[in-house]
Design a protein that fits this description.
- This protein is an alpha+beta fold and 461 residues long.
- The protein folds into four domains: 87 residues, 2-Layer Sandwich (Phosphorylase Kinase, domain 1), CATH 3.30.200.20; 182 residues, Transferase(Phosphotransferase) domain 1 (Transferase(Phosphotransferase), domain 1); 51 residues, no CATH class; 85 residues, no CATH class.
- Helix content is 31%, strand content 23%.
- It has 14 helices and 19 strands.
- A six-stranded antiparallel sheet has the order 1-2-3-4-6-5. Strands 16-17-18-19 form a four-stranded antiparallel sheet.
- The radius of gyration is 26 Å and the shape is globular.
- The protein starts with 6 loop residues before the first strand and ends with a strand.
Length: 461
Amino acid sequence: MNLVGQRIGSYVVDRELGSGGAGTVYLCKHQLIDRDVAIKVLHDDQNRDPDQVARFFQEAKAAAEIGHPNIIIIIDFGTLHLEDGDRAYMMMECLDGMSLDKRLRQGGLQLEDITHILAQCCSALTASHAKGIIHRDLKPPNVYLCNRSFDPLFVKVLDFGIAKLTTPDPSVRKTQYGIVIGTPAYMSPEQCEGKGAIDHRTDIYSLGCMLYEMLTGSLPFPGEIGEMLRGHLYETVVPPRERNPSVPPEWEALCLHMMQKEKAARPQSMVEVAQALEDLRGHAAAFQAAAVTRGAIGHSGHTARLVTDDTGHAEVAAQPTLMVDVRSGPHAVRTTDAASRGVATPASPPPQSPPEPPPEPLPPPRLPEPADPAAACTALVTDPRHAAFLATLLVRPPGRWSAVAELCQTSGIAASPMLPPAPLFVTWLDHPYLDPSVCAVVFLSLRDGWSASLLCARRRW
């Protein structure tokens, strides 16, 4: 395939910029205003696979939907009808600069440059995750450093080609269970397992791998693909300061925190990573305290993680874990703490005095239940505590009905018992008077024909 000289709308293909496994990128020039754009065209074998074409368009939709200055701008996408067959294409802004991997090959980065690059990545991915879009292939080649007049290291995150939408388009076939997708050098442990248990924290791990490379000049787990996968899954990463003694301890702490094997032990959002960047020493102290706490209570059935408040202050939170004492039967539950070190009380002989029963666990806090079904539906859309419901709904195309139960599960919202009985569906529509800041949300019960509609701010949270 060679499209040089081909006209695409008002653009003419000028030259090839590069080619990868999925497609070829060309530089195109507008014939009237002398504007340059880049056009990515799928290879012939990819064009013959409907799933690949659907994922290609999903990439374009995902990047365009986010609309963040640190994510590449998608201008147009569609199908080229050529004499030798149809080809899917994506038109993007043309970038001036180099990818992060090329910049790393030229020499190390200063810590202030790493801070600047990482902060922009966090900002872009915060916006992406808010839209329910997980990148899943973060790596230096997909971070482009643009040479802008106001910023010589202006970041553009590229290639959402294997992005996972937490509310996927049903026309795109889901990744099969057991299929590993990503770049092995930067994949999270859950990606390496291929079990599909992927959420936004996989991007945090991958960004941590990138930080490791920026700090040390080497990959966290170098070697062949199998060695990389085993490393991410089972091995403890060599601390950055052992590979580069000039790395400050607070930078090592952030890197190791982001690369924790367990998702719950990592920063829980890109916002937390950005807050850590603003106070590296405070974060390092809290991370060290969490490590000490984990060591002290590692045999007690507790778990420890960092909790960050709105001001960026981080502290350690430890929670007890209930454990089953198999020697006392399957229904005997015991709690362990630092004093007991996890040693179970023997079943015989019985203790001299019966131990006090453990306190009943407090029930999780519940939101007040609305008084009627219409109020319950309204609360799902307007209550800030249910913001994830509306954010997940608005990721989906307008006019497409979604089951409320499925949408609640996807967004992590507990469905109110006051909602009308299933099947209950919801969709959203543009404002009838074309106000872009407002949308209409419509609920419909198929069982009895009950419906409710309301207007709400489209970008409220």
